[in-house]
Amino acid sequence: MQIASMDHLVLTVKSIKKTVHFYRDVLGMKMIRFKKGNTERYGLKYGQMKFNLHETDNEFEPKAKLPTPGSEDFCLISKTPIDDVIKELNDKNIPIEDGPMINPGAMGKIKSIYLRDPDDNLVEIANYLK
User: Fold this and answer.
1) 40 is catalytic
2) Which residues form the signal peptide (predicted)?
3) Distance between alpha carbon 117 and the CA centroid of its chain, in Å?
4) Is residue 14 a contact partner of residue 22, using CB atoms and an 8 Å limit?
5) Cα end-to-end distance, the chain, whole Å
6) pTM (2 decimals)?
7) How would residue 122 be classed by pLDDT, with cut points 50, 70 and 90?
8) What are 79-118's pLDDT values in tens digits?
9) ∠ CA 83-17-99 to the nearest 5 degrees?
10) Fewer Cβ close by (within 10 Å): the C or N end of the chain?
């Protein structure tokens, strides 16, 4: 077996509205709506991937064994230079928890910053170094 890439990740959140605001209005992702059966669902699309959103106590089956808001820690690669990301976050009054710093990424070294989303998930935003 050879896994090629990831299609989506499910984020369990306390509030879809607050999550959409953060990822769409702060980080620039596109909110999408889609149906599965008779249920309307929400997601956040970016690049070739998306987050599907499950609201706490209203998750869809199948689901993770312990779906918990604030338990995620992931890295997003930005097309925008990290120094410009920092300026934009500062302009939007979004606190940066750590960084910038150099870290090992999946395909080489990255320059990263860390922040928290509305559920306290740790969100790393990075650029690959050339």
Assistant:
1) no
2) none
3) 8
4) no
5) 31
6) 0.93
7) very high
8) 999 999 999 999 999 999 999 999 999 999 999 999 999 9
9) 20
10) N
